[in-house]
Structures are given as C-alpha cells and as structure tokens.
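Morning F.,

Quick status update on the modeling queue. The single chain you submitted on Monday has been processed. Sequence for confirmation:
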Amino acid sequence: MHSMLRLRNALLLRIRNPIDAIVLFNCMIHELPTPSISLFNHVLRSLVKMKHCPTKISLSKHLELRRIKPNIVTLNTLIDCFCHFRQMSSAFSVLGKILKLGYQPNDITFTILIKGLCLNGEVKKVLHFHDKVVAQGFWIKLVILSCSMGCVS
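Structure tokens below.
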C-alpha cells in the first residue's frame, strides 16, 4: 500500500503529457480509499495547462460517474475549459451546479465567466451578468480588468 502511495506521489510530480495524466487518473480512480479531490484536481489542472480541455472535461464526467464529489476548484477549472471552447451555456450550467452543491462562487468563478463572455464579444451580457450577480449579494472586484482584457475590440 505504501509503495502505491509513493508511486502515485512521484507520478503527480512528473506529469509531462496527457497520457501521463490519464494513466495516473485511472490508477487513482481505482484506489481504495479514493484519493482526495485535491489530488484529482492536480491531475486535471495539468491537462488544462497542456491545453487538453476536452480530456479534462471527459475525466471530470468520469469523476461524477464514480460519485467523487468535485470541489470549487474542480468546477472552476471545468468552467474555464468550457469558456475556452466558447461553450458558455455549459459554463453557466457548471455555475448552477456550484450553487446546487451549496458552494459559494468566488472571484475566480466570476472572472472566468466574464472572460468567457468577453471572448465571445458579449459585452452587454457581461454588464447584465455583473448586475445580476451583484443584485444577488455577490461582490465582483475584477470586472473592469476582465472586460478590458477581452471585450474591447
């Protein structure tokens, strides 16, 4: 058992390509007890850094099928992937899941969504989203920075 943990920890430090990440993910998914979500997040974030969002999305679905509960980091990363592919309805569905699971969206959540809207040239939707979020009691401090980075064409 200890040798398996040492091997997994060594592999976590050496994820160099998507295949490494997938192999490690598949090993972790079958471990008992199931590793923490933060270890899965490490693997999933490595895929995003390598620009393999479709693989990250697929593995996230696999976690869900295995009833491994995501945390806010897992879900924010998933929103980021959908935004990069301009799948804003899917990104906002993940926001709904965050709320349904009882998590509080944070500045990162809102900034990712705003950047996604900006990538799509949806300036009016950014303003509407901002107003709606603020009306619900959330505070967004990065809206202006986010908009200036992506909405002005």
